[in-house]
């Protein structure tokens, strides 16, 4: 296939600006994201693991671990302590990039630390429902944070 044809084919599949931030899709993902958060606070590891794509390609980068593949994510969940039950979210943003893909980003706070947590997830709609295909969790000292 020529480069020109390949570029045209990619262009046909490209996300159109009108497809970004589809309200219904963003609302669906926000609802699933909220279910995930509730399971996280309950420390319901079986439910949490089911939110992730069952694939060796699924990635979760956490504050103290790298989990490559669903098996590693299951192992991490089995070995991790619960989050603080009074964990709270702020500045949660869900953006749909198509009818079948969205990102969810949030900050989280807990009364047992002064650090600001940050969480990003990429969600894809599969036949069995919305699944996280990649996630990243980090934290930052607010005294060293620059906000633009």
TrEMBL record:
It holds the Pfam family AtzH-like. Coiled coil: none annotated. InterPro entries: AtzH-like, NTF2-like_dom_sf. NCBIfam families: HpxZ. This is Oxalurate catabolism protein HpxZ. It comes from Pararobbsia alpina.
